[in-house]
Q: What sequence folds into this?
């Protein structure tokens, strides 16, 4: 084993942990994205998964830019917006605008990553 820094990921075994978490997050989002395309429930896990992906992407931006693609971000965004169009009127009014605004903000932030 080679150690090359004092960082938590500063050895040759740990240096790819961020990549693994990014891949896992993207995989979860893909599963949720497929489910959301048919979902007509007011609850959705997509934004929570995007939020967590962003946390990891901030820690590992180089890996995030390699693993996240712009076309996937646009697909996920479209899925969220289509879902919101379908069920927005079912969401309690006091939360509706905030959920949409949070989604817009998360996708705006996510669009800073990827290729």
A:
């Amino acid at each position: 084993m080679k150690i090359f820094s004092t960082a938590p990921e500063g050895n040759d075994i740990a240096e790819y942990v961020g990549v693994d978490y990014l891949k896992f997050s993207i995989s979860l989002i893909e599963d949720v994205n497929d489910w959301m395309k048919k979902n007509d429930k007011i609850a959705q896990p997509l934004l929570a998964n995007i939020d967590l992906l962003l946390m990891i992407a901030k820690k590992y931006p180089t890996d995030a830019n390699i693993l996240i693609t712009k076309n996937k971000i646009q697909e996920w965004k479209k899925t969220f917006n289509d879902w919101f169009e379908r069920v927005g009127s079912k969401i309690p009014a006091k939360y509706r605008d905030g959920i949409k605004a949070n989604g817009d903000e998360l996708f705006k932030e996510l669009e800073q990553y990827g290729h």
In short: The mean pLDDT is 96.
